[in-house]
Every structure is written in C-alpha cells, then in structure tokens.
Specification:
Radius of gyration: 16 Å
Shape: elongated
Structural class: mainly alpha
Helix content: over 70%
Number of strands: 0
Distance between the termini: 28 Å
Number of domains: 1
Strand content: under 5%
Largest sheet: none
Number of helices: 5
C-alpha cells in the first residue's frame, strides 16, 4: 500500500472519529437533559454524586465532545489529543452509570472506544510528537 493510500485511510479514521465525537456529544446532551427533565427515572443511588451533578457532567462532556469534533474536522492536532481525553471522561461517566441504563451506556462506551482508537492509531498525534 502506498503512502498516499495509507494517509488517506488514516484521514478516513480521523474523520470517522470526528463524526463519532459529534454523535457521542449529541447523545450526552440528550442524556443530561433527560436527567434534568425527569429526575425520578433514575433512583438517587448513583455512584459518586447526586442527580443534578450527573446531569451537569453529561451536559458539559456532551458540549465539549460536540465542539471538539469541529476542531478535529479542521485538522487541529491539539484537538485530537483533547478529544481522546474527553472521550475517556465520557467512557468513565457511562461506566459509572451502566447499572441504570445498561444498553445506552454500552453503546456510548463502544463509541468512545472507537473514537480513542481512531485518533490514537490513525490520528496525527505521532506526527505532532516527532515535530516536538
């Protein structure tokens, strides 16, 4: 496989990760809004915080994922690193609430893992490290 084909495949994975960032961000915002809208649907036995705190965590991570996807599409290498960190935070949040919404949490965890894979393996993080 030529260098051009390899770089095109890598860029496709980065674009895929950008789309997944936007989707995960949208889902996080919906989940955060649902927590605020109907706080009775999840019993207040959460792992660390109360309902309001989890709602804010989902909203903040969702907005951050959504805005980071735009920067990833622009080719910003720092945004790729930041996206990995935010996707890991999203993964932690959904791993902590998996007992209340197992299907939803597993779907978001899989999306987060795909984001991290796409950006770590195929992103331009190595190129940024070589230039330093």
């Amino acid at each position: 496989m030529g260098t051009n084909a390899t770089s095109q495949r890598n860029q496709s994975w980065v674009d895929f990760a950008g789309v997944m960032l936007a989707i995960a961000g949208f889902f996080q915002i919906i989940y955060g809004a649902a927590v605020f809208a109907e706080s009775g649907y999840i019993v207040n036995k959460l792992l660390y915080w109360n309902m309001g705190s989890w709602g804010w965590a989902h909203l903040i991570v969702g907005v951050t994922l959504l805005s980071t996807s735009w920067f990833v599409f622009q080719g910003n290498q720092v945004a790729e690193v930041f996206a990995i960190i935010v996707a890991a935070a999203s993964l932690f949040i959904h791993a902590s609430t998996v007992q209340f919404a197992p299907f939803w949490s597993v779907v978001i965890i899989v999306i987060d893992v795909l984001i991290i894979y796409g950006l770590v393996v195929h992103g331009d993080i190595r190129g940024m490290k070589e230039r330093m």
